[in-house]
Write a structure and sequence with these properties.
The protein is of the alpha+beta class. It has one domain: Aminohydrolase, N-terminal nucleophile (Ntn) domain (Glutamine Phosphoribosylpyrophosphate, subunit 1, domain 1), CATH 3.60.20.10. The chain has 6 helices and 10 strands; from the N terminus they run ββββααββββααββαα.
Length: about 250
Amino acid sequence: MTFSIVARDPDSGAIGIAVASRFFAVGAMVPNVSAHAAVASQAFVNPLWGLEGLRRLDGGEAPADILADLVARDKGQANRQAHMIAPDGQIAQHTGADCVDWAGHCMAENVSIAGNMLAGPQVIEAMMDAWQAAGNLNMVERLLAAMDAGEAAGGDKRGRQSAALVLHEGQPYPALDIRADDHAEPLTELRRLLAVSQERFALFSKAMPTVENFSGMLDRTPLDEAIAEKERQMAQNGIASSSYATSIV
């Protein structure tokens, strides 16, 4: 009842998951992402696969060994689907024999795609084609391009309800974590949230502490100037805010 993409950019260090489903709050259960690894656990979901799998990937275990162990221990494995990417780019995938048709997965270098209860295999095929064709885009736009292609190819055969995108850029906390938990057009809502994030959050995130710089930016003057410049540019180009937030007074 879900389709997802797990991918990494070895050049920038970015790693993330995008997912959509005709199920409430898919972002609460499926994506598990750390600074350098990612696991998507879906279908008749066992959230422990994602939690344990991510912890073990971060501990240096091979994804194939982790997934084989999870399958061996779980009596419900025939109804589970999961895929993961390790810090070194290794990929492991599992689609249980009893996952609702259509269900399956595919992979290429640094990208894994999987889905179940889909309109057909064309969904993940379209996602892979879109991902490969979007190499000129940044990681977030590339993930969303793949998701849009999957939806256009039929997506979840029951319809739409929720979607999520989680991206890490080398830090233990996400660079972006957006969700549409119950929406008629969840992927469209993700794009609105992305637009809102660019108004202030993307600027503010540059000042946040990192593992390398525990204190982060201490002088907020450059941040205030960047926000003011962003607002000036939006006003100059007639671009209204995409946010539903109340006005700042």
